[in-house]
Amino acid sequence: MEIVTLVSLLSLYCDFTDAECLVISPARLVVKYGDPASSNCSSDTPVEMGWEAIQGGVGLTDKEVKILRWRVDSVTEWYSTPTCYTEGGQCQKQLDITVYKLPDSVSISYRKYPDPMVEGHQYLLQCLVQNIAPIGRLRVTFYKVSATGEQTELDTQQKSKDNIKTPENGTYTLDFTPGRDDDGAQLLCSAMLDLGPEGPQPPPVMVSNRLNTNVHYKPQITRSPGCFSMSITEGDTLSLACSANVDYLPIIAGLASVVILLAISCFIYSSYYKHRRISY
Question: What is the DSSP letter of 163?
Answer without folding.
Answer: T
